[in-house]
Amino acid sequence: MSAHPLIMGHPTSSPEHARHALLYMWRIRKFEEAVEDLFGRGMMHGTMHLSIGQEASPTGMCMALTLQDQITSTHRGHGHCIAKGADLTRMIAELLGKEIGYCGGRGGSMHIADVETGNLGANGVVGGGIPIAAGAALASKMTKKGTVAVSFFGDGAMNEGAFHEAANLAAIWKLPLILFCENNKYGMSSSTEKAFAIDNLAERGKGYGIPAVNVDGNDVIDVYEQAEIAVKRAQAGEGPTLIIAETYRWKGHSRSDKNLYRTKEEIEEWRELDPIPKFTAKVIKSKLLSKEECGAIAQEATDAIIAAVNESVKAKPADPAGLLEAVFKKVSV
Amino acid sequence: MSDRMLTMAEAIREAMSIAFDERPEVFLLGEDVGIYGGAFGVSGDMYHRYGAERVLDTPIAELGIVGAAVGAALSGMRPIVEIQFSDFTAQAMDQIANQAAKIHFMLGGALHVPMVLRTPQGSGTGAAAQHSQNLEPWFASVPGLKVVVPSNPADAKGLLLSSIDDPNPVIFLEHKLLYKIPGREPVPEGSERIPLGVSKVVREGKDLTIVATGIMVNKAWEVCEKLSTEGISITLIDPRTISPLDMQPVYESVDKTGRLLVVQEGPAQAGFINEVIAQMAGSASFGSLIAPIMRLAGMNIPIPYAPQLEKAAVPQIEDIEIAAREIVKNWR
Ligand SMILES: Cc1ncc(C[n+]2csc(CCOP(=O)(O)OP(=O)(O)O)c2C)c(N)n1
Ligand SMILES: [Mg+2]
């Protein structure tokens, strides 16, 4: 299951674009469901942070990016990785601790990176990727590469010093950076109401001189349109943009979450706002795709995940023998 | 003596509750310590018993949280800070190492920082390199910090109570894998303290002395049990506080056994256990050794994710067993 060719552009600009947006949202959904299943069956260890319900945000953002544009991601990073074009087999293989996994079994779910698609890595540290993305944007600016960097992070990360320091650097240096916050309303058990004294997280942009917008994070079209504007600003040398994508995580924070801090009703309400049927209905209505085509796209995603799981299960487990040599990159002479 | 077999999470919660009841100035702050009950369930129901005024849920902001604890501690409160994983003390290191640790000394004794920072550490959960470190030497190398590493529920309770009493900053390192398992010994009721800076002789033998910290004490215990059936008897010493470090029982034991094996989870390079070796090398008991000192420690690598890799990265029971057998057999 090699990476799909990335398609850039507005999700409703052609049937191919609509197909891509829908396929990638399904790929993320089905991937996360497979992870939950592997976990449940005791085939995967460690922990998992699922992004079910949030698929439109990374999909819409990444449709505005080239393969060379860079991203940094989070502990809840499978969606970003897939949307940027990563190989599903190498992802699943990593979760299963296999040699062919993206990190050779050394990193697991929270550390998948894919240099070929510009993914500088998920991160176990909340906020850890934000200054790194600023640094990638700085390198792009210094070398006149013309690429942009996007940092995906959660609402919770906006209270870490890392966010504030990176935002200021990006603003004063006018870096080609997009600060993409997936506001899923909670950082573990802390609601945004409790963790912020402002109602709209976009207000944070002002203090740094960074334009900020709110988007419907469950609407791949809305996400794309604002992402495109932000990318253009970055490319024009006008500096960073803060995007606040309003969304929701359906599942618990991780496997140990008992959901004591939110109500079943709230979860149900957000499940109604599922980004996938929303977009599906739109493209069928506008005759970009037929109902049958949409069904086939969902099936294609499912098949791709099943194939990735089957191939990964058969792959060779990572071998402890090379661990010591893996710490440093060899100094070339 | 009661026969209450608590887990380490329960014992720590009990110690915090006793301190909450004894002193109104004690409070707990940290990420998800409230309704969630703590990422590892340590604060549990304390939010419901003591309320949001004393069990403070914080935003994700480690530097701010620890700094606020330092400031409150300077101003008459006795904060207990929970950092969700010890790895994220990195975010707060300025407040820990530059502020809390130095204030009393640097300010000529004008102020002091009665703060406890509790945090889970260690590998074995498949959470990979940024959630699994053993950071004992980070803290043990900073003058001005006391560092406690409990290996069982009963010690955790008594040591935590002493840590909260202490007028200085104390880093309290709890191993995640120990949270959910009961100790070998019951946890006494009441509020008895275990003093900081006193090593514990866990069991006594005549052939070998093992010094181990945290979870390695439990692994070494298994080895002591097994080898005792083969006629090898081992003294096991748990320093419990790695700063200040009490070496006296180690000297006394080595004088009898002549052999020393030291075990830690963290990487060998510049590890805490090297301090035990250094102090032994400079002591009068060095002459009692009939075997070279043997060191077992983690590999000099970040903790990997896959279970088979993670296992290889830190000493396992079998590794300790092989080392113990070797040193006793080869040096007579
Ligand atoms: C520096 C740091 N502090 C705490 C944690 C533990 N932790 C992991 S994810 C998380 C919540 C993050 O919330 P948010 O940024 O909103 O992302 P979400 O989980 O909602 O996607 C916390 C507290 C961490 N990994 N890193
Ligand atoms: Mg969140």
Description:
The complex is a heterodimer of chains A (333) and B (332). Chain A is α/β, with parallel strands linked by helices and 333 residues long. Chain A has one domain: Thiamin diphosphate (ThDP)-binding fold, Pyr/PP domains (Rossmann fold), CATH 3.40.50.970. In chain A, the strands form 2 sheets. A 5-stranded parallel β-sheet of chain A has the order 1-2-3-7-6, sandwiched between helices. In chain A, strands 4-5 form a two-stranded antiparallel ribbon. In chain A, strand 2, helix 6 and strand 3 form a beta-alpha-beta unit. In chain A, helix 2 runs parallel beside helix 9 and helix 5 packs parallel to helix 6. Chain A is globular and about 50 Å long. The model of chain A has no long low-confidence stretch (mean pLDDT 97). Chain B is an alpha/beta fold. Chain B has 2 domains: 171 residues, Rossmann fold (3-Layer(aba) Sandwich), CATH 3.40.50.970; 131 residues, Rossmann fold (3-Layer(aba) Sandwich). Helix content of chain B is 35%, strand content 17%. Chain B has 12 helices and 12 strands. In chain B, the strands form 2 sheets. Chain B has a 7-stranded mixed β-sheet, sandwiched between helices. In chain B, helix 8 links the parallel strand 8 and strand 9. In chain B, helix 8 crosses helix 12. Chain B is globular. Chains A and B meet through loops of A and helix 3 and helix 11 of B. The site of magnesium ion (MG) has 6 residues of chain A, from strand 4. The site of magnesium ion has 6 residues of chain A, from strand 4.
